[in-house]
Amino acid sequence: MNTDFVFGSDWCTKNAARIDYEKSQVSIRSSCGRIFIPYHKSIECLTLDVKSINVIHIPPRESYTVQAKVEISSADTVYFSPVDPIQSEKSIVMSPSLLHINNYTTYLEVYNPHDYTYILPMNTVLGRVTHTPYEMHSCFLFDTFRETSSLSPQHHIFNTIELETKPSATSNTIDKLITHIKNVQEQQQLRLILQQHIKIFDISKVTQAHTHIQHTINTGDSLPITSRPYPRTIEQRRDLK
After folding, report:
1. Element (H, E) at 227
2. CATH number at residue 148
3. Which of 24, 69, 92, 95 is most buried as measured by Cβ atoms within 10 A of its Cβ?
């Protein structure tokens, strides 16, 4: 597994840590002897595989949210590059995307372009992720003509992904609405649905709905019908007085 680390002097002294800069590895003392752990100096050059965790049945011509594992403990944004569907034997389509990794897991959309249910085996390499620098504002995707030439013409893939420097207030509102959902996959699926209708949650501008719906009950010019709720006799009225 891979994770960022910062060494402290107390920890290094307690575990007798040694840093070998020439071999890019760290060794610590243990009951079985010294353990050697390699490390990467620059994460910008690090590329890791993304693999499926479970066996997935994808219905024909539908997209499915797949849970995948990566050898990174956590990351706010990484660039995902799918396996070339033409060179590989997999009959699925995935778009390059920006993924969020939490506890070595992430979620991505997989599309089945065929008329039959596709079974995605466990530990299938779906693609690879690389580090996304903070100064990057956009990512170029694959050639859409080459990738979609063997698919139906209705399947479109965008050729760029734009990164938002700051989340909008509406996005923050959506995040607050789904915080009560504990299941991460259900939370991601609901976020995608709400993002598609994000204009509904935007209260920064005053909007007015123009409809042609008329009143369902045509009362015309007649006055509403009125009656006493509890009719009483003359004797009862006298008693009330």
Report:
1. none
2. 2.70.40.10
3. 92
